[in-house]
Amino acid sequence: MFTERSGLIIWVNDLKYSKNFERYGIVHYVSKRMNYVVLYVHTERLEDVQRNLQRLPYVKKVEKSYRGEIKTEYESDIPDKTRFYTL
C-alpha cells in the first residue's frame, strides 16, 4: 500500500537552487542556516537519484539518511515505580 521511501541529506553551496530538487523527490526540509536539504525518494530509485544529484554543480555532498535504521521501539529494564507513588 505504501511505497518505501529513503531520505537523502544534500549539502549545497547555495539554497537558490533548492526548488530544483522537487523533480527528484519530495523536499521535506531546507536548512537556511546550514545549507542542506532533506529529500525523500523511492527506495528503488535511491542509487540513481543519488548519482544524479552528485553530478550537479551546486551540490557539495549527498548523504543517505539513517533515520529508517534507528530503533524506535524502546524497552525498559527498570521496573515502573509509579505504582508506589499513587494516592
TL;DR?
With 87 residues, the protein is mostly beta strands. The chain has one helix at residues 46-54; strands at residues 5-12, 26-31, 36-42, 59-64.
Structure characterization notes:
There is one protein chain. Strands 2-3-1-4 form a four-stranded antiparallel beta sheet, with helices on one face. The model has no long low-confidence stretch (mean pLDDT 89). It is built from one helix and four strands, in the order E-E-E-H-E. With 87 residues, the protein is mainly β.
What's the helix and strand layout?
Elements: E1 5-12, E2 26-31, E3 36-42, H1 46-54, E4 59-64
Antiparallel strand pairs: 1-3, 1-4, 2-3
Overall strand count: 4
Number of alpha- plus pi-helical segments:
1
Q: State the shape.
A: elongated
Subunit arrangement of the protein:
single chain
The span between the termini is: 47 Å
Based on secondary structure, the structural category is mainly beta
The overall pLDDT, averaged over residues, is: 89
| Integer-rounded radius of gyration | 19 Å
The sequence of SSEs as H and E is EEEHE
Q: Any low-confidence stretches, pLDDT <50, length ≥5?
A: none
Q: Main sheet?
A: 4 strands, antiparallel
Assess the beta-strand content as a share of residues.
25-35%
List the strand order in the largest sheet: 2-3-1-4
Helix content: 10-25%
